[in-house]
């Protein structure tokens, strides 16, 4: 049993052989090792013989009553113990990874979503997965799709203004546009139409940003021209300007509750009703890491 060349991976001992060897080495008896491993004595004997054949050395000198360790066994024992420990560590690590107990999660979100909806989502997620590292890529609406398509992040939380073939959009929050202003702009509790909205100074995002395309389209469908008083980059800024009495902000209803401004009144805008939904978004055909899968599951079961 002499090997003149290094062993190939196929010639290395199996995990079962290593466990049998360590058990026999520690106990000094095949019968005791068999009890430790919950297998039969012949099975342990076969595993030892197979390991010796693979390594090309004798590990134990056998007699009718006992086994005596050889120098090769003393040399091999340390390697065997470390190998088994590393494999057990690998198993624990992968179990933690697959169960989202550890790892990292890279999320893209527009600045408005990152400031309004995302904190409550991630607070609940972090409570369930405290050891997952959360990396938030807050970006402009124009950069949102690119962040996900390029693979710079694992997933995105937000809205696609148009379908993107390479992305999957799973809506978990259904929303619509509302008008937000101080009480002096709203004399009744009734909903607004786009025609009625056209009588007010409107605060909205700049052309090309987020909901602006939907606002312009809704006004066109209603046959009205809005009086745009202020154009901003962030919806949160629009709400702040509305709170200052500068006009009526047109924003998704879901972000109004996060402003915590009791001085503002909210009215749904009808004819037409414009939806603005929030989705979990990821690359089509890609394998989501377990941390992203657990976030996906969380947002869909979150009340």
TrEMBL record:
GO molecular function, one term: DNA-binding transcription factor activity
Coiled coil: none
PROSITE patterns with a match to the protein in the record: HTH_LYSR (PS50931)
Chain ranges of the HTH lysR-type domain: 13-70
Transmembrane segment boundaries: 234-258
Record has rRNA-binding as a keyword: no
Family annotation (Pfam families): HTH_1, LysR_substrate
GO CC list: cytosol
UniProt keyword terms in alphabetical order: DNA-binding, Membrane, Transcription, Transcription regulation, Transmembrane, Transmembrane helix
Similarity-based family: Belongs to the LysR transcriptional regulatory family.
Protein name from the UniProt record: LysR family transcriptional regulator
């Amino acid at each position: 049993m002499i090997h003149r060349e290094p062993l190939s991976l196929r010639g290395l001992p199996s995990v079962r052989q290593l466990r049998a060897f360590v058990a026999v080495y520690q106990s000094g008896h095949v019968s005791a090792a068999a009890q430790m491993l919950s297998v039969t004595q012949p099975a342990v004997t076969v595993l030892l013989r197979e390991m010796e054949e693979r390594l090309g050395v004798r590990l134990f000198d056998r007699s009718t009553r006992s086994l005596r360790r050889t120098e090769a066994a003393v040399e091999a024992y340390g390697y065997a113990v470390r190998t088994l420990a590393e494999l057990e560590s690998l198993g624990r690590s992968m179990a933690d990874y697959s169960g989202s107990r550890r790892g990292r999660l890279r999320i893209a979100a527009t600045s408005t979503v990152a400031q309004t909806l995302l904190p409550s989502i991630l607070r609940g997620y972090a409570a369930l997965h405290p050891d997952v590292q959360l990396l938030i890529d807050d970006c402009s609406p124009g950069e949102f799709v690119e962040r996900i398509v390029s693979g710079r992040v694992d997933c995105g939380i937000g809205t696609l203004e148009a379908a993107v073939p390479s992305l999957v959009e799973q809506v978990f929050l259904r929303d619509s546009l509302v008008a937000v202003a101080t009480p002096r702009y709203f004399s009744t509790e009734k909903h607004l139409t786009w025609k009625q909205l056209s009588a007010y100074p409107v605060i909205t995002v700049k052309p090309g940003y987020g909901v602006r395309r939907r606002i312009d389209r809704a006004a066109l469908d209603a046959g009205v021209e809005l009086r745009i008083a202020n154009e901003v980059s962030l919806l949160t800024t629009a709400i702040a300007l509305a709170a200052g009495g500068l006009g009526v902000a047109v924003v998704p209803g879901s972000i109004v509750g996060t402003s915590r401004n009791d001085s503002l009144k909210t009215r749904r805008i009808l004819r037409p009703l414009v939806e603005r939904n929030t989705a979990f978004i990821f690359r089509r055909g890609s394998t989501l890491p377990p941390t992203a899968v657990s976030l996906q599951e969380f947002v869909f079961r979150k009340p």
